[in-house]
Amino acid sequence: MLGSSRIRTDLAVESKEKFEKDHVEIEGVEISEDYREELELRTTVVKIVTDYGAKVMEKPKGTYVTMEAPGLIVPDMDYHREISEQLASHLQQLLKLKKNQSVLVVGLGNQNITPDSLGPKAVHNLKISRHIVREYGVTGMGEEEVHAVSSLVPGVMAQTGMETMEIIRGVVKETAPDVLIAIDALAARSMKRLNCTIQITDTGINPGSGVLNHREGLNKETLGIPVIGIGVPTVVDAATIVHDAIAHLLENLEDSEMEEFLGELITPKLHSMFVTPKDVDETVKMLSYTISEGINMALSGTNA
Amino acid sequence: MLGSSRIRTDLAVESKEKFEKDHVEIEGVEISEDYREELELRTTVVKIVTDYGAKVMEKPKGTYVTMEAPGLIVPDMDYHREISEQLASHLQQLLKLKKNQSVLVVGLGNQNITPDSLGPKAVHNLKISRHIVREYGVTGMGEEEVHAVSSLVPGVMAQTGMETMEIIRGVVKETAPDVLIAIDALAARSMKRLNCTIQITDTGINPGSGVLNHREGLNKETLGIPVIGIGVPTVVDAATIVHDAIAHLLENLEDSEMEEFLGELITPKLHSMFVTPKDVDETVKMLSYTISEGINMALSGTNA
Amino acid sequence: MLGSSRIRTDLAVESKEKFEKDHVEIEGVEISEDYREELELRTTVVKIVTDYGAKVMEKPKGTYVTMEAPGLIVPDMDYHREISEQLASHLQQLLKLKKNQSVLVVGLGNQNITPDSLGPKAVHNLKISRHIVREYGVTGMGEEEVHAVSSLVPGVMAQTGMETMEIIRGVVKETAPDVLIAIDALAARSMKRLNCTIQITDTGINPGSGVLNHREGLNKETLGIPVIGIGVPTVVDAATIVHDAIAHLLENLEDSEMEEFLGELITPKLHSMFVTPKDVDETVKMLSYTISEGINMALSGTNA
Amino acid sequence: MLGSSRIRTDLAVESKEKFEKDHVEIEGVEISEDYREELELRTTVVKIVTDYGAKVMEKPKGTYVTMEAPGLIVPDMDYHREISEQLASHLQQLLKLKKNQSVLVVGLGNQNITPDSLGPKAVHNLKISRHIVREYGVTGMGEEEVHAVSSLVPGVMAQTGMETMEIIRGVVKETAPDVLIAIDALAARSMKRLNCTIQITDTGINPGSGVLNHREGLNKETLGIPVIGIGVPTVVDAATIVHDAIAHLLENLEDSEMEEFLGELITPKLHSMFVTPKDVDETVKMLSYTISEGINMALSGTNA
What we know:
- By secondary structure, chain A is α/β, with parallel strands linked by helices.
- Chain A has helices at residues 12-21, 51-57, 77-95, 118-124, 130-136, 157-160, 164-175, 220-223, 238-249, 255-265, 280-300, and strands at 29-36, 41-48, 62-68, 102-107, 148-152, 179-188, 197-201, 227-237, 273-277.
- In chain A, strands 1, 2, 3, 4, 5, 6, 7, 8 and 9 form a 9-stranded mixed β-sheet that branches.
- Chains in contact: A-B, A-D, B-C, C-D.
């Protein structure tokens, strides 16, 4: 498919779909799927194991867990709690925490723009324990096994004048956590995935991800510690929906003709706009709660 | 005009443009324009004086002042203050306040969604005086002429379970203001007008206006007192940008053919999404300040 | 006790204590207590049944349920949920709702001042249904019995220029709910009750209650419908703690001597200040959730 | 002076007053005063120049500028702007910036608790330029001389699990600013100074300052770069007002007797509470604006 390579997606499951559409199997990419009917929850695990696979998928090597649960857009507390438990379970597998380790959780994005505030909101619900563990020891929380949890909301470059990476790198060097969890709002390729898909990956958060530009990736290479990325698509790039509508209209044209049309129609201005559902406020509030509960469960050791 | 009747605009100046494009003059609609070069400010006054004009323009009879100032998206405090003064002057002409009258200012919209929070944010900056005037008399504010200013942020139906109209009607009956000013975020037809256009009208706020549905209009007919509407377009309907891209692509097709295409492509789902610029947070903060300062100036009598 | 009559309390349980201290039984006041050890929850029901009782207690006739649970200041989600259930049960007894009635829930206070934001915050977590019931009928929520729940955050006079009472009366007249629930932050007499006491009363919210002045009471007399008040003490009047410290110091003085001292020492300025714990932010967040969940349970009919 | 040493103050001008009361001149402390009648602005400059002076004043050596302006509690924009200009002028003298230097501005405190949110609120109004200077060079802002301004809101330990110092040290090492400005809400000794006093000092922010504990000082010794502290007292420790009331009552007692009384009466619990005016919301909003405008002026070079 032409054009689609120009329109980015942060979801490995969407990269995968492009190839399925063309009935292509990709060497170096392992895919497994699971569907839990009672939760209407489809979980896809994409493992990119070779450099070739990474190149084709346009994503770093690593594991990408995608939970698709249309029920997430409904404000049903009990349902969200069950999804939190699933999330906790996947998170624990990717975190591979040893006893009494320290975890820094970072909420990326602009807390003043609703669809970009998922990370900061999720961080606000976390159970923070690092300062207690440091003051009273690992038994200070009244539990046997305790991870020292700290959190940071670094803000965005337009507000701070600093790249998110600079702030996080400084704090990581100073406080030396064993692992980083980064929560971010993502851009999806398809409107149907908005606000009902959670991606968890051990590859961190990488360039082009999220609503705003994060210049360099947050990952083991750049930070020196494992980075787990948790993302939910809350917006679609405005250029994407125009692209899709027109591609649909022109699907019988030759690829080269379509490319010409699209080049003219999709102006740079469209890329400075985002599309988001009108009920984004309520939905982001629920989702941030679901994610933070999942992290709380994963780090308290009660969901192992 | 095809299609355009399906895609709504809240701006009279955009209704006007449709006809100019077709070189049509509309009976019953008077238009005057003014351009102040030093402010890059284009002010258009559209007066709809006959029922015929209202029908063609798809807007109630009345006066619509539109201030277009591309500079509004730049955070220059002094520039914004000059626009506030222009706004104050137009507002005073439409308000026609007599000595010591009472004004209720209503901030419409959802304060938790950035592009819809313009009204609530603007209301938070207002100088409120009604309670002081009631306690200490018109000289209580230390000025000769004083209007009793009160304000209300009614919220949106999904949060309150009540129509905005019900809440405002109840408060208007109980507190009997002489005039209502309603501030709302609008949907624009064109991306180029986002966040740099202010519309002031003596027709109030009417159905289909704003990001969210306000079932009934806020106007003299429904509330029994004059209603001045102040609006700024902060979003474009997601369907609009798809429509425009395709219309541009297909401009050589016959109208009937295009209608067919558009009917298929613009799905109802698109209408539940909105498009907004990525820097909407900063911009809405500045704009709400500019509007509230304009109202403060208009009601303090220092800008007459 | 001298002086104590000058220092107000919003809690019936504190009025009661004054008399117990003096071993006085009050005619026209019925008191029952219950202690649930596993929840560390003490529930006191004070019924003021005669005018004499009302005069002595300085509170209107009616029922005052006070839940004291020191555990409320700990952020334990499961514990808070159990308290929500207890609250729901008391609320249902006082509400005496018939099938398919409508309830307006009002969050009093200033949402920008942490200890006064309990009401607005609690309202934000409510399940709002009135607009759905009106659109789709009582079966629209997918349950058999449904109350039409609406909500309002009226703001405070310094922000609106209107008395809270004017706004609520207007909205009640316009939307005609069957019963009103008003949530407010209260001033306590004793620091030990801050943020761990919930009072529920069928007498509404009455003058002098809350952090800010609500000129007239919200009750059946003023609004024409039953009013249930739910309050949590989040502040102590600054004058109170000075009074108490000095009364303790001077407890061997004669009453008339003490009165003289206190008159000099407790300046009016002290009454424009409030005292609140340094961790008020987290605590108010949890409490508002506990109260809103209690209301959600009471109105969904699942806790009957 | 008994007792007063136990009750802390963050204001050098209050330390000074203790000695004036006793008609004591302190060696190693230079004091100059200025009163501008048209602004009702009293400016006191306290210079602690010797170790002896530092010991007696219980403050580090350095310069402390205190601006006392009762008018600050009135929401008069023009007045606040004039105070901003005065602040800018003092700030420039303490900053001693050379051409094209970089400044990191840190807003200390908890943004969710109104009286502690002064620092974060002030930071939100700043003109941030570091990212633009880095991208487009010093001429990128369209001015000749440009300082690269960045900002950070580190949060508080209960939210982050990290000490404020750890976060700031990490970010300072990573981004290497030439100077740090730290804005904090302070605790005052006297209620009359609340919200109408601004202290600017080249000694940074030091232990015991502010509403919350900042374990280590932010100063040249700990951070390696000059630190300018800007503080406004927004709360009084609850223990202070009890202490003062009783000290006033007992002023004829011997010091040793009073100490005994006070030891019994001022419980540790009182120290976990704070006292703040009921109108703190509006006032903190205005003050944060005044401070940020002062910083903006100082760093833009237009007020030199």
